[in-house]
Amino acid sequence: MANHNEQLDQMFHALSDATRRGMVDRLCKGPATVSELAEPLDMALPTVMGHLRVLENCGLVRSTKQGRVRTCELEPEQLTQVEIWINERRSLWGRRFDRLGEFLVNSEPTNE
Amino acid sequence: MANHNEQLDQMFHALSDATRRGMVDRLCKGPATVSELAEPLDMALPTVMGHLRVLENCGLVRSTKQGRVRTCELEPEQLTQVEIWINERRSLWGRRFDRLGEFLVNSEPTNE
DNA sequence: ATTATGGTTAGCCATATGCCTAAGTAACAA
DNA sequence: TTGTTACTTAGGCATATGGCTAACCATAAT
Fold this sequence. Notes:
Chains A, B: Residues 1-94 form the HTH arsR-type domain. The first copy, chain A, is α+β, with helices and mostly antiparallel strands. Chain A has helices at residues 6-15, 18-28, 34-38, 45-57, 79-94; strands at residues 32-33, 61-66, 69-74.
């Protein structure tokens, strides 16, 4: 179960910022240029570029440049990694009593 | 669709660190004391406490102190927030073509 | 009462993050 | 060819993050 996963680090980090989540929202509705992404954001363009880079590094956004326009598109399948991680933990959690033997040394029976 | 969600910020941030995800893993298997959490971690206890605080702030871990021992427990239901966020985006993405007309209308010059 | 244990607080340090402005570059447009 | 547009790069600044040590409680344990 890979917790030392650079990709997962980057993904969670990318999503930990409301501005970036907003950009993802925008891209859910279809591709957008850098300027279109920046337009509602009340911050300088280089700052938006920084956020975009974070989203691209984790694979959640892909972009291509044609002429002087860079068009960004969402790669929503990358979210599956997060879902898988969560499902694995839910599964672990659900089976935690199967492992009680490992900790049973000084426990007492309870009736709750 | 709440992206300006402090809780979501904190949750994603908490999960963006492999050490903290490791602590979550441990807690999936059952409650643990601070020392037990720290034991496999090769870092100083105060550092572990810091990570623990992050996990508690986002609601993913709850802890209580009895005597001098603090026992931590996972609150896996908090992960639902993340799943909901992902599902909402998948849904948006799935219906992105329904909004094509709306997009054309909104690309008219506006005064905001 | 004294010591050991488990956790906590305080404070320091290096790096990362998020923001900015200013100045570049590479298409288009006129 | 000259200017405008759409990014891009460089660099600077303030705060946050993740790590540490040292010292400090507050409970056990002896």
